[in-house]
Amino acid sequence: MSSDTRPPASPTLFLTDDDVAALADLPSAIRAVRAAYPAPVDERRNPGRIFADSGREWQRTMPSVPSSGRLFGAKSINGSFADAGLRVSYLISLFDKRTADLVALIDGNRVTGLRTAATSAVGAAAIAPERPLALGVVGSGFEAQSHTLALAEVVDIAEVRVFSPTPRNRAAFADRFTEELGVPVRAVESAEAAVRDADLVLCAARSRDETPTIDADWVADDAAVVSI
Known about the structure:
The chain has 228 residues and is an alpha/beta fold. It folds into 2 domains: 13-112, ornithine cyclodeaminase, domain 1; 128-227, 3-Layer(aba) Sandwich (Rossmann fold), CATH 3.40.50. The protein has 6 helices and 11 strands. It has helices spanning 17-23, 26-36, 109-127, 142-154, 167-181, 191-195, and strands at 13-15, 50-53, 57-64, 71-82, 85-96, 102-107, 133-138, 157-163, 185-187, 200-203, 224-227. Strands 1-6-5-4-3-2 form a 6-stranded mixed beta sheet. Helix 2 (26-36) crosses helix 3 and helix 3 (109-127) packs across helix 4. The longest helix has 19 residues, at 109-127. The chain is globular.
């Protein structure tokens, strides 16, 4: 069988992380996730992750040929245990269904963050109490920040308490989100202080030595918990 070696119909689009930041937003990501997740799953179109691992470098690839739309492709997560520790990057490649042309190569870092936060937001919207909520946040990094913004898109947040092991980080988080959300955001001295009596709990901190980030005894009976 011969192959078609004609040139692509249009140049490949390259989107950097900054490009994605300028083009994508949380409300759009939440709408996309809410529409996509109830769709039936065909394992031929959406197989499980493919793993490759040398012990020092590794790659996880997630291919998909969706039933709708004009594109198909794959996302890869690429890791290397370099001298400075683990480094990870993300790449999304998209192809035209009709021509198989490579349509776009996209830095997947911010897309991954948006999708993760949007997934949590859709879940929280379905199970969180329907009233103004006290949000307890454990963690103050990228995931904690993106998830706090995503949750604010889908539930009514009345106040926030945040704990991070580093005092300046939790203080910076409190300052930023007091301004951005327009509600009181308070840095507290422990994970327990953030979680107790919260209506919605966000765990976005790395567990140390396999120690649980929060204790179930701290969580109110009707609270919703989002754990990353």
